[in-house]
Every structure is written in C-alpha cells, then in structure tokens.
C-alpha cells in the first residue's frame, strides 16, 4: 500500500489531521502522476511532540549505538536504491542514469561520510580546569529542497542523528516522493519512535510553523535566499539556531595558463549538470578578453552536444526543469539577457526542437556578458551559462566576488600554486580547483547571502551540537 497520502510520525504512518491533497507533477509530461497529503499546524505539533518525547532517551545513546543505527539506515537505503532513483527521475525530471549515479548516489555518499566522521568525532575535550563537551542541540526542523532531494535530506538527517538529535523533516512538496521512500527506509532500519518524523506540506503552512515552533531547538534549511530570510525571521522570535544553505551565482575563473578548451568544455558541463538546477553550479564563466571568442566557440560546441529529452530515454543528458514556475522564470531571464545586449551564442527562448510538452529548456550560452546584467546577477537555476570577459587577473577576482552570493567558486589553471593563490581570494564557502572529484568530507556552505553553517561529514555534525563547559572538572 502506498504511503503517499500519509505522514510518518512517532514510528507510524498516519493520516493528516485535516485532509488536503496536492498533485505531484511529472515535469516531462506536465501531468500529475500521484498525489500527497499536505499538512497543517496540527500535524507539525504532533511531529514535534513525538520528537520532543524521544529526545531525552535518544540523546543519551552512545556513539556505538548511533553508529549501529546509521549503518542499518545505510543498508536499508541501499535496498531501496532503485526505487529512490526512479522517484527522483519522475518527480524532478532527472535522466534516470543521472538519478541513479548522482541523485541517489549522493544520499548514499553522505550517509557513508557521516558514519566515517562519527567514528572519530571528539565529543569531549579537556581545556584548563574545564571539560568541554558537545551535546545534541535538541529537536531539529529540517526543511529540504527539490533540486537534490536525497542529497539534502541525508545531509541533514544523518548528522542530526549522529549528534543525538531528534528530527522533523519537511521535504519539498514539489519533489516529495523520494522523501516518502526515505521515510520508509528509516522505518525499515528500526529507527526508534519519535527520533525521525516526516510531515509533507508547503512553506507557509508547514515550514514556517516548524521554524516558529517553541519546542524546536534548531532549523536547518536549504532553498532560495528569499525563503531562507523568511525562515530566519520566523525562527528569531524563539532565538533558535538557524543553519542555511541558500542561493548562489558561482564564478568560474579560467586563467590564461589553463588548458583552455578543456576548462571551457568542463565548465559548460558543470553549469548544465542537473539541468542547471544546482545552487553551486558554475554559471558565470570568466575568460581572458583576448580569448573570449575562442571560449564562445568551445562553449557553443559543447552546449550543442547536450541531448535534451525524456528522462527515461537512453541517451538523454538533460531532462526538463522541475516545474512550470521554474520554466517561466528561466524563460524570462533568457529574454532579459537578449534585451540587455548579451550575445546569444546558442539556445535561447522556448523549448528545444521536437519537444512540445514538458518543462524543457534549450541549453543556452550567452557571451559578452557584463556583471551588471540581470543574467549575471540573478540565480537562473536552468541550463544557462554566462561568459564574461576580463582584462587581467585582478579584474577577474573583482568580478567573481562582486555578487551578494558566496556559495562556490571555481579556478582553472595548469599551475596549481597559481590556482591556490587565486582561490584564497575568493569570497566563497567552497572553491574548486581544476574540476576535482566531489568530496563529501569537505565543508559545504556559503558566505554572504548564500547562508551560514556548514554541511557534510563532521562539519555537519558540529552544527547539530551545543557546547558546554564544565568548569572545575579537575
């Protein structure tokens, strides 16, 4: 029997307090393929009460007990791996191969990294006459987005449990079915009643209620900067901790000494991955002005290699974007790029040829972009790359940092020392040199309006802990 219309609270699948249903849209067809229940304050109250009741006992579990639980969750996750991949592909339009390798793989990777970090994490340290201990902060409200559903769910749930916290999760109502399956994973793993709870719903009726709830000790939110500000203001009345991973407009500096063709082509790939729906995507490519036209040739060639189409079809590289709202926003921003005088290199408004239904966006590259243009300032969240020329390295760094965001930055150079020196000048939480492999042990989070706090491995565990100094220990 499907649990799509139920919530997971206090170790059981239950009906919402007030029946209300929302269709889940397949973005490749624009049609509903299932429905979920959406919650209200009464459901949040019930879930928070369950988490509060479970906290005292669970917070006293030993490291070894929590490790054993996380390992059971990982095993149950692997058992449902294909179900998770299929759900992500259907609900957000990810090509099935990408959904398996990257989307479902991200959840598994974060669970494995959290387990590894917990095995050696120091929860107590002697300082002078004091014993400094790190204790679970309490009941945590976790609000996650639609673009990397399992990445963000596991990024929050796993370290919260590793720290000894109890949680209430609200997955995105746009991509909610992977959250249902994850809740089934938690149930199958034997997570104690009340330690993990899940309520579906929208931001105003569930997310903000969670953020405001007096019995919630911390909110961990991933989403847009606009929504993050609302969550932070809502949480402020009860002075709870708020961790945020928000928007980005990441610069990718291709230095003159880079392997130029490779750097440009991989930059296009990075921008277009996940149909451009990644907050840390390298969406602003900065290239030497005297090689700008060469960069556009490589970018055009690479962009036109991308096959956009049915997420379930062999060979598809880009699926649709997630919703009609996102599609409309991307189209408006592409039009703005044209109107403001950027050079449209390839792509443009409308759907790709042969695709008349579904939220498909043409892979698009703009050249001659200046950093005051809308497409260089606003997060587009689609397969749209802006190429900006720079005169010298000083100007490249200045342009890269001239943004309200600071989630990620990228630097390309054959000289690793040169790349490192530029990386140190980037005002961003993560800097990637020469397109390295994904590293789930590195901290992830932003400067400026890209948020606060850090996720991944021990960095994430730290954010779910309070620090207590017991003075006079000796």
Structure, briefly:
With 474 residues, the protein is an alpha/beta fold. It has 15 helices and 20 strands.
Q: CATH class of the largest domain, anyone?
A: Alpha Beta
Briefly note the structural class of the backbone.
alpha/beta
CA distance, first residue to last residue: 58 Å
State the total count of DSSP E strands. Answer: 20
Portion of residues in helices? Answer: 40-55%
- Mean pLDDT value: 98
CATH superfamily of the largest domain: Aldehyde Dehydrogenase, Chain A, domain 1
The tally of structural domains comes to 2
Tertiary shape: globular
Unreliable sequence segments = none
Task: Give an overview in words.
There is one protein chain. Helix 2 (63-79) runs antiparallel to helix 4, helix 2 (63-79) runs antiparallel to helix 5 (149-163) and helix 3 (81-92) packs across helix 4 (96-120). This protein has 2 domains: 7-246 and 450-470, Aldehyde Dehydrogenase, Chain A, domain 1 (3-Layer(aba) Sandwich); 251-445, Aldehyde Dehydrogenase, Chain A, domain 2. The protein has helices at 41-58, 63-79, 81-92, 96-120, 149-163, 177-188, 203-212, 225-236, 260-272, 292-303, 324-339, 374-377, 393-401, 416-423, 457-463; strands spanning 7-9, 12-14, 21-26, 31-37, 124-127, 130-136, 139-143, 166-170, 196-198, 218-222, 241-245, 251-254, 284-288, 343-346, 364-367, 384-390, 408-412, 430-433, 451-452, 465-470. Helices cover 40% and strands 20% of the residues. It is an alpha/beta fold and 474 residues long. It has a 7-stranded mixed sheet with strand order 14-15-16-13-12-17-18, sandwiched between helices.
């Amino acid at each position: 029997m499907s649990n799509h219309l139920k919530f997971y609270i206090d170790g059981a699948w239950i009906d919402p307090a007030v029946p209300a249903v929302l269709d889940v849209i397949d973005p490749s067809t624009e049609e509903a393929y299932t429905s979920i229940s959406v919650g209200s304050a009464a459901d949040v109250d019930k879930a928070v009460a369950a988490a509060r009741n479970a906290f005292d006992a669970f917070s006293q579990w030993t490291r070894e007990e929590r490790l054993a639980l996380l390992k059971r969750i990982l095993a149950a996750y692997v058992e449902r791996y294909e179900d998770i991949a299929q759900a992500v592909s259907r609900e957000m339009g990810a090509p099935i191969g990408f959904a398996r390798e990257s989307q479902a793989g991200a959840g598994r990777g974060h669970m494995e990294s959290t387990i590894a970090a917990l095995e050696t994490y120091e929860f107590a340290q002697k300082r002078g006459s004091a014993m400094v201990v790190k204790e679970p902060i309490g009941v945590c409200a976790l609000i996650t987005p639609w673009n990397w559903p399992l990445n963000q769910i596991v990024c929050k749930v796993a370290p919260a449990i590793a720290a000894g916290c109890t949680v209430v999760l609200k997955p995105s109502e746009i991509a909610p079915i992977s959250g249902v399956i994850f809740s089934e994973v938690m149930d199958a793993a034997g997570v104690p009643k009340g330690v993990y709870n899940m309520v579906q719903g929208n931001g105003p009726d569930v997310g903000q209620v969670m953020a405001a709830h007096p019995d919630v000790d911390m909110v961990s939110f991933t989403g847009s900067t606009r929504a993050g500000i609302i969550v932070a203001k809502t949480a402020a009345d009860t002075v709870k901790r708020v961790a945020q991973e928000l928007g980005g407009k990441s610069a990718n500096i291709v230095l003159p000494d880079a392997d130029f063709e490779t750097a440009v082509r991989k930059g296009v790939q990075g921008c277009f991955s996940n149909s451009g729906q990644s907050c840390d995507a390298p969406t602003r490519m900065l290239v030497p002005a005297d090689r700008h036209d060469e960069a556009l040739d490589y970018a055009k060639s690479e962009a036109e290699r991308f096959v956009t189409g049915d997420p379930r079809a062999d060979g598809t590289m880009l699926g649709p974007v997630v919703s009609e709202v996102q599609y409309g926003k991307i189209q408006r921003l592409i039009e703005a790029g044209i109107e403001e005088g950027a050079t449209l290199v390839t792509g443009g408004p409308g759907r790709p040829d042969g695709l008349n239904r579904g939220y498909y966006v043409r892979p698009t590259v703009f050249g001659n972009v200046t950093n005051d243009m809308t497409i260089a300032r606003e997060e587009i969240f689609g397969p749209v790359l802006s190429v900006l020329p720079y005169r010298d390295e000083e100007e490249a760094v200045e342009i890269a940092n001239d943004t309200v965001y600071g989630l990620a930055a990228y630097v390309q150079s054959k000289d690793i020392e040169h790349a490192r020196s530029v990386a140190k000048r980037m005002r961003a939480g993560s800097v990637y040199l020469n397109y390295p492999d994904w590293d789930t042990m590195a901290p992830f989070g932003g400067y400026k309006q890209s948020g606060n706090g850090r996720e991944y491995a021990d960095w994430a565990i730290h954010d779910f802990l309070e620090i207590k100094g017991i003075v006079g220990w000796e």
